[in-house]
Amino acid sequence: MLDRRQFIGGGVALLGAATAGGPARAAESGAALSSHPSLRETGQKAGIPFGLCEPASRFPANRAYMDQLFAECSLCVPGNEFHWRAVQPGPKVFNTTKLDLFARYLAEKKVGLVGHTLIWFQTVPDWLKSVNDPAAFEQAMATYIDHTVSRFRGQVVRWDVINEQVDPKSPREDGLRDTLYLQRLGPDYMTRAFAQARQADPKALLCYNEYGFEYAKAEDRRKRDSLLKLLRHLRDQKAEVDCVGFQSHLDGTGRLDLDGLSAFTREVVSLGYKIAITELDVKDTAMPADEAERDRLAADHAKTYLDCVMAEAKPVTITTWGYTDDKSWYQYYDWSRRRDGRPLRPLAFDAQFQRKPLWGVIETAIRAAG
Q1: Which of 55, 67, 146, 177 is 20 to 30 A off residue 74, Cα-Cα?
Q2: Residue ranges making up the domain that contains 194
Q3: Which of 215, 226, 248 is nearest to 12 (CA)?
């Protein structure tokens, strides 16, 4: 997934919106779910904090919306505000005004921050592109990470230190994406970034975050293989990586590669990493028009995915990429809008803040893992 944050066979098990035996009937109606404890409460009891994404840039104008949100979660991803381009628009200019205000509000609500994301190829500051000297480039990276992580030490529960650095189309043997960081510093820039983040906040969870490895597609298989190569390299380098973020942008009409995903998750855990579900949603662009049927199928798809992953590991956190359907990043792009013009429904809450079947799936998964 490359632009959402700019808005802010042969023994292989395959499963799409339905299987030969029919989908797991996970979906429970919103009305039936309304009396259940919040995911905030359920997550706290299970030891899996639940979080939502809502841009800090909308605060305080959206305070009423935020007040609703924080009844349901104990973590918040503040949209784009931690990106290097946002935090340091000039070589000697730092701007965390929006984040500072937002962080104070979250502290009042006893909600932790998710630091998303420090190093991402999509948010390189313009001024950094002219820094050609490797030593100067590394110093700039260290300064930004130290400034940002230190400033919010004790408030950020999980830092997505490195984001989306594997590319299934990469010609490199290691599968790394050709980024400015790679060009200036070589592949070990990631180890250095994690070390700097650990020094700045020894207690926060440090995460490598990635997308696009859930399905029965050649590019997903290549992504899994390349990501495992990277994770082995980071382990061998003794990099300060605590967990791997499974972004979990699901496609409700896709075919999940359950065997491949299970084996991948087991290997991640065997390498000594925890996992986090970091950006969960279910794209319903090509799903049926009927909303009740669409919600059920999306919930069934998410249940199959979560059951598969969480059979191998208990996530340290679960976060969804948005709160209510009408604020989803998918609505802003032609490729993800529905051709029938109907509103998208990819999240756990509808536009009226009502819990949907996907909410029930997340609740059940958290309870089972606790």
Answers
A1: 146
A2: 4-369
A3: 215
CATH number for the domain including 212?
3.20.20.80
Note the pLDDT of residue 32. Answer: 82
pTM equals 0.92
C-alpha atoms less than 13 angstroms from C-alpha of 350 in its C-beta half-sphere: 14
What DSSP string describes 260-329?
A: HHHHHHHHHHHTT-EEEEEEEEEE-TTS-S-HHHHHHHHHHHHHHHHHHHHTT---S-EEES-SBGGG-G
For the chain, what is the domain count? 1
Question: Closest Cα partner for 117 from 161, 157, 54?
Answer: 161
Q: Which regions of the chain are under pLDDT 70? A: 1-30
Of 206, 205, 200, nearest to 144 (Cα)? 200
Q: Where are the beta strands (DSSP E) in the chain?
A: 14-15, 50-53, 75-77, 112-120, 156-163, 205-210, 243-246, 249-251, 256-257, 274-283, 318-320
